[in-house]
Write a structure and sequence with these properties.
The protein is α/β, with parallel strands linked by helices. It is built from 11 helices and 8 strands. The strands form 2 sheets. It has a 6-stranded mixed sheet, with helices on both faces. A two-stranded antiparallel ribbon has the order 7-8. The longest helix is centred in the middle third of the chain and has 19 residues. It is globular.
Length: 274
């Protein structure tokens, strides 16, 4: 009888049943943006959700068949998870055959009394702890599990609520940790396909490990992102290409039709060369 939670079977599903939808898009994102180089030592950051767990499995599989050597450390930061959530993360890591390093912080205790944008503060603090721990392991990059839907939602949120055209970049240099980079290898993988992969393999991941779920659900930033998710879902029903059209819009910017733009603190207007 086949064990549905056999790590080998789960890994094989990436390159068989989900080859086109997940594995090929994972590889395309890495190659398109040159995310991984020979000799890299990458801290793969696992939050316990479906996205980061899939990322870890993809990176683990890639290590075996890559054309050049690179190393991975699979790290889990416990910001104050409940015992049940931490146990679930450890259980899923074992099922997937991922050797995780768990380190602790007290971020949840720090943000519990923050009334405005606790999710934003929590995310910034998590990022700092992840960079610091990765650096202590000798890593030069951290990998996060953001996917294509996250990218599209960020673009739309920036326009609707931030009055700016911006996107979630596939790679960035750390401004606080010299020589460190952040990469997003699932950049071209869609969330629906991640959900399908998890269901196919009978995997259940933590949806929200935050101790303050009710408070977070009322957070302004969280509510806006949910609004955008729902809006995009309705638009996809009428036009399945809407996501890619939004993405192409930030790939195909024509500066001759832009009123003004800036790079850092340097601003320019179309009137300069009119």
């Amino acid at each position: 009888m086949t064990d549905i939670h056999d790590p080998r079977r789960i890994e094989l599903s990436l390159t068989k049943k989900f080859c086109k939808k997940i594995w090929s898009r994972f590889i395309k994102g890495i190659k398109t943006y040159g995310m991984i180089k020979e000799g890299d030592r990458i801290a793969v950051c696992i939050s316990g959700g479906k996205d980061s767990m899939l990322l870890a499995k993809c990176m683990q599989h890639l290590q075996k068949y890559s054309d050049f050597p690179f190393e991975c450390e699979y790290i889990v930061m416990d910001p104050g998870y409940s015992p049940a959530n931490r146990a679930k993360i450890e259980e899923n890591a074992a099922i997937l055959g991922i050797p995780v390093h768990i380190f602790e912080s007290q971020i949840f205790d720090t943000v519990v009394n923050v009334d405005r944008n606790p999710c934003y503060l929590c995310a910034r603090m998590r990022r700092g702890h992840l960079y610091s721990y990765a650096e202590s392991l000798g890593c030069n990059k951290i990998a996060l599990g953001h996917h294509f839907d996250d990218v599209i939602e960020t673009i739309v949120m920036g326009m609707f609520y931030g009055a700016q055209v911006q996107t979630m970049m596939p790679m960035i240099h750390s401004s606080n940790f010299t020589g460190m980079q952040l990469i997003r290898p699932l950049y071209m993988v869609r969330e629906a396909d991640i959900i399908a992969w998890a269901r196919y393999n009978g995997l259940e991941f933590i949806r929200c490990a935050c101790r303050f779920t009710e408070k977070v659900e009322n957070d302004e930033q969280s509510s806006k992102r949910q609004e955008i998710k729902e809006l995009l879902a309705r638009m996809r029903e009428k036009d399945p290409c809407i996501d890619m059209n939004i993405f192409r819009s930030v790939e195909n910017v024509n500066l001759e039709t832009i009123i003004s733009y800036h790079k850092g603190d340097e601003y320019h207007s179309f009137t300069e060369n009119f």
